[in-house]
Amino acid sequence: MNISQDEFIEWRPLLFSIGYRILGSVTYIEDFVHETFLKMYDVEDQLVHNKKAYLCKMMTNRCLDYLKSAQHTKEQYMGPWNPEPILIEKLPADIVLEKEGLSIAYLRMMENLTPNERVVLVLRDVVGFSYSEIADIVDLKENNCRKIYSRAKYKIKEVENESLDYRQNQQIVDQFIGAIQHQNINQLLHLLSEDVTLYSDGGGEVRAALRPIIFNQNVAAFLKGILKNATDDFYYEIKSVNGQPGIISYMDQRLHSVVSFFIIDDIIQGIYITMNPKKLPNDSVQEKK
After folding, report:
1. Element (H, E) at 173
2. What pLDDT is recorded for position 92?
3. Nearest to residue 274, comparing CAs of 85, 28, 106?
4. Average pLDDT, consecutive stretches of 10 residues, N- to C-terminus, the chain (289 residues)
5. Domain that holds residue 246
6. Residues 118, 189: one domain?
7. First and final C-alpha spacing in the chain
């Protein structure tokens, strides 16, 4: 079956969006999208009644296969696992992702879902497919898909209260940075929820906390230690990370980490520090200006 250039341009962002939200990784998604379009050429015309749905089904199945094969790898992962961050302005112009369901907090919460729950949730909330269309894609009964969707929504209900007001969240991030720079522990504790959790993802590639850091006092002490160990050429920028303000830091003239936040009602509930070089955007590594 042939795919026109217009169809490729229209549906490529959709397939990328599906893959990224299901896997929380960019590394393999572009290849999966390319493979999906190539395989479509081998499909006989009479087997396809809806090209878009069929492409989504092929992409979904590719992601499900990867999830199953990657399960053991995830279990052996050293330390907390964070989704791979995306610097929005660094994406190709034709890859446009909605902010909803894109934050690091949301994607990390997706790890609590089974593969089928992830797929049904993404196809329903992101793609907007009906339950009958989803049932056809995942080869399940429509009623089962409704139950799976309901169960998935319940599991991620905490993150659905997340603030997505970019300007307001940037004010919180600015205050957070100021409190750390001036070592104002009281102000920092005021910004953090009592049971805030910090996830430091080094993946065994660089030094990082091997377990999540829980409670505001512990998180504050951990952050103070990071600043203490910073090199003289350390500097940072605030950029859009997965559609929300994040901190991009550099040390030794190299990209060192990407920090994202989970904010509800102006209070930081979660902090995600990604330092694993394999997860850092290669095209954002730069020399200090």
Report:
1. helix 166-181
2. 44
3. 85
4. 84 91 87 92 79 91 85 74 81 48 89 92 91 92 97 93 93 96 93 97 90 96 87 89 93 90 97 94 49
5. 165-284
6. no
7. 50
Per-residue model confidence (pLDDT) at position 218: 96
Same domain, 185 and 264: yes
Give the pair of three-digit tokens for residue 109.
């919460």
Residues 197 and 60: their CA atoms lie apart, in Å, by 31
Say whether both 149 and 233 belong to one domain: no
Rounded Cα gap, residues 203 and 16, in angstroms: 24
CB 118 within 8 A of CB 22: yes
